[in-house]
Amino acid sequence: MAKVTLSNLRHSYLPNPQGAEDYALKEIDLDWDDGGAYALLGPSGCGKSTLLNIISGLLAPSEGRILFDDRDVTDLPPDQRNIAQVFQFPVIYDTMTVRNNLAFPLRNRGVAEARISERVAEIAAMLEVEEMLDTRASHLSPDNKQKISMGRGLVRDDVNVVMFDEPLTVIDPHLKWKLRSKLKELHQRVRATMIYVTHDQTEALTFADQVVVMQDGEIVQIGTPVELFERPQHTFVGHFIGSPGMNVLPAEQTGTTARFEGQPVSLEGTILGEGGKTEIGIRPEFVTLADQGLEARVRKVSDVGRHSVVEAMVGDTAVKAVIEGAVPGQGETVHLAFRPDQTRLYRDGWIATEGRA
Ligand code: ADP
Ligand code: MG
To answer: β-strand 210-215 against 193-198: which pairing, if any?
Structure first.
C-alpha cells in the first residue's frame, strides 16, 4: 500500500508531438494518499487507460515522474512496481480451476501453501464464489470470470495499489449494482490504495472517496462526490455529473452583473474577472417554479419516479428544473427562480464566481 504521486506527467502516442492536441495526457499532477479509494471518471477517449497504464508501468510516459511513497518508479518495469491491475475484460487461465486462478498471483511470488489456502478462502468468501472454487474457469459465465479476475487483483495483500479499468463493462446490468457495492466493501476491508477507472458517474460516485474528473487528457476537478455535485469547477463537471446535468446557460456580463436572456441573475458571490465566453451554471435541483421570475414556456415534462423534470424555454434556451409534486402541463407559461447560492458564472468553462464560505 502506498501513496502515489504523479508529477508533470505528459504523454503522446506520436513520435514527434507538436501542439497540445497531440497529447493523450496534457499535464497531470496528482497526489493520492495511501489507502484511499479513488475514481478516475471521464468520457471514452479522455486518457483514463493511458494514465493507468503509466502508473502500472505498461506504458512509459513521454514526460514526468511517478512516485510510490516518494520513491521514483518511473523507470521500473511493471513486475517491480508491485501493482495489481484488473482490466476491462477478464484475464484468467481457462484451463485452471477457480481456486488455482486465485492462488496464481501468490504462488508466483512464492507464498507458502498454507497462507495461500487461507487467502484464497478469504477472497472467495468476499466475492461469494466459494461454491465455484473447484470449477474449471472455462465453464464460468462472463460475470463470474470477471469476478475471479477481480479476485486475482485483490488476493495479494502486499501490493502498492490495486487498479480497476472499467471492470464492470462485461457484467450484466442487474449484477452491476451488486458488484459495485461489493467493491466499496472490499476497499474498506482490504485498505489498499485503489484506483477505479470508469466513464459511469454512478460507479465512480459509489466507489470513491475522491473522484478525479478528466476531459481531453486533462484533470478538470478533483473532489468528493458532494463537492463535484455542489460546486463544479468547470461546466463539463456540472454537465457530466448529475442526472440531468447542470443547466449551462448563455450569459452576458456587464461589470458586476450577469444577465440571462436580458434579465439580471443573482449569483452565489462576486464575479471574478471579465471577458471570454460567459455562462451561468445552475443545477436543475435548484431551479424552482415561482410566482415571479424568468418567464418560460413548458416544452416537456418527464416523470422520473420520485420527481419530475420540467424542461421550459426561456427565449431560445431550454432550462431544466427538478420538481417534486404538482407539475405544469406542456405549453403552459411558468416563472422560474434560481437559488442564488447555487447559481454561478463560468468563464470559458471555468468557475468565475467567488463562493461564500
Ligand atoms: P480512455 O481509457 O479514457 O477511453 P485512452 O487512454 O484509451 O482513453 O485513450 C486516450 C487517447 O489516446 C485517445 O484519443 C486514444 O485514441 C489514444 N490512444 C490510446 N491508446 C493508443 C495507442 N496505443 N496508440 C495511439 N493512440 C492511442
Ligand atoms: Mg479505457
So the answer is: unpaired
CA angle 142, 145, 146 (to 5 degrees): 90
With cut-offs at 50, 70 and 90, classify the pLDDT of residue 160. Answer: confident
- How confident is the model over 256-306, as pLDDT tens digits? 999 999 999 999 999 999 999 999 999 999 999 999 999 999 999 999 888
Q: Rounded to two decimals, what is the model's pTM?
A: 0.90
| Ligand 1 neighbourhood includes 48 CB (under 6 angstroms) | yes
Q: Where are the alpha helices (DSSP H) in 155-223?
A: 173-190, 201-207
**Which residue's C-alpha comes closest to atom 27 of ligand 1?**
13
98 in a domain, yes or no? yes
Q: Which domain holds residue 318?
A: 244-355
Q: The CATH number of the domain where 263 resides is what? A: 2.40.50.140
Other beta carbons within 10 angstroms of residue 132's beta carbon come to: 19
Q: Which atom in ligand 1 lies closest to the alpha carbon of residue 46?
A: 3
Mutational test site, ligand 1, from 50, 54, 166, max ligand atoms within 8 Å of CB: 50
Phi, psi of 40 (to 5 degrees): -110, 115
